[in-house]
Amino acid sequence: MIKKNINRKIKPEPSGEIEFKLPPVKEFTTSNGLKVLFAKKDKLPIVRFLLLVDAGSVYDSGKFGLANLTAMMLDEGAGGLNALQLIDEIDILGSHLNIRSDEDTVYISLQTLKENIERSFEIFSKVIASPHFDEKDFQREKRKALTRIIQRKDNPDEIADTIFELKLYNKENPYAHLPLGYESTVNSITINDIQNYYKNYFSPQNSALIVVGDTNEVEIQNLINKYLGNWKNEPAEHINISPPLRRGSRIIFCHKKNAMQSEIRAGHLASKRNEGNFFARHLLNTILGGQFSSRINLNLREDKGYTYGAFSRFNYFKRQAHFYVSTSVSTENTGNAIEEILNELQKIREGITEQELDFAKSSVIRRFPSNFETYSQVATNLSGRIIFSLPEDYFDTYIDNIKNVTLDDVNREAVREILTEETLIAIVGDKNKAAAQLKNFPNSVFIYVDEEGNEI
Predict the structure, then answer these.
(1) How far apart are alpha carbons 397 and 279 in whole angstroms?
(2) How does pLDDT run across 23-69, given as a tens digit for each residue?
(3) Domain segments of the chain as ranges
(4) pLDDT of amino acid 225
């Protein structure tokens, strides 16, 4: 065998243009109003189903944690099977059932072998259309939810997210609150609340089903007609959420005695997913804090050595959005780290270079196909099309849309979307060691809060 020597000092050149096209996505609506998206992927004998229900925590109506607890109850017995029987059946079939919820959506996913598709889908349909909602199961799941809430209070990372979003959106806005809920609100939830919530929001017209894998449109329609044909709840009206008020710069501090590190969040409200130039905004964040070689990470990690990592992102809910920077630093560097974050936010408003833009475009474009390697990734990406009402050709035109972004586009979005005068800073750490480092900041009026964001 002849070994070819490779000069590892020479950076490999790109292999050429990236061309990517999703398999055709077929769309249809069933007789009971369920929207279906189907992408054929048949290299493996696997089928993945993902049901999206517009029933997230924005509909909790003050009983925070209700949507989450309802989702937790769905597979605790359904269609004549108790919780253990349901789990055993799924395991025997070699399938995987998962349920989760967030602010906007309840996600019910099933991955199954092609040979077991019918029985697996039958169980899947029982969970969707005929959950038991038994009082004993409810009390058990309620205790789990309360335990998880208590555990959050010992996690500075999660506390920082909690207090940041609560103070950013303000308590009157449903996006301000934890989907998990709070001890007081979860304790107030009854089994009747769960039953009514399910009745109001779990319906075909309020849902969409994504199917990816080794099947066909006829088989999908037959399965739905056979096992979900009688699912006919009437959906409740959608809610209108008023835009949150902009309140200017503030510092929110949650004291953790003797904490060795400070968790930091810094950000502000942002344009919604379908407002402005999303692709320019995405490239802007890639340069600012969206990848390892971004400005913020190179500054705080590589140059200053304050942290193991720092990133920024635009966080898009269905109806609202915000921008934030996240990092964890040693307590003695709290003030320095925040100063550097604010400096980077100001600098990005002053413009980026053509070289930075070209590098960001190359990074985003070359990473894009890897987002569709697995059945789960395809289904998850298609869910974004539904939640944000994106055009049918969104993924097919994605690379061209990234390529077409200009330097002026990004610089315009930087001025429009990075609002240094509105930066909310949330810190979880030892106030006795960190607070004094922030006394010279222009927004040095502190609001002290507990782990749930309540002012103290």
Answers:
(1) 11
(2) 899 999 999 999 999 999 999 999 999 999 999 999 999 999 999 99
(3) 25-227, 250-449
(4) 96
Residue 232's pLDDT band (boundaries 50, 70, 90)? Answer: confident
Tokens for 348, please give them: 């990005």
Q: Per the CATH hierarchy, to which homologous superfamily does domain 25-227 belong?
A: Metalloenzyme, LuxS/M16 peptidase-like (3.30.830.10)
Extract the tokens encoding 165: 């979003």
Distance separating alpha carbons of residues 444 and 248, to the nearest angstrom: 12
Q: Is the pTM of this model over 0.90?
A: yes
d(CA 227, CA 32): 12
What's the one-letter identity of residue 77?
A: G
Q: Which of 28, 375, 45 is nearest to 212 (CA)?
A: 375
Residues 35 and 208 sit within 8 Å (Cβ to Cβ) = yes
- Spelled out in words, what is the top-level CATH class assigned to the domain 250-449? alpha beta
Place of tokens 């995987």: 96
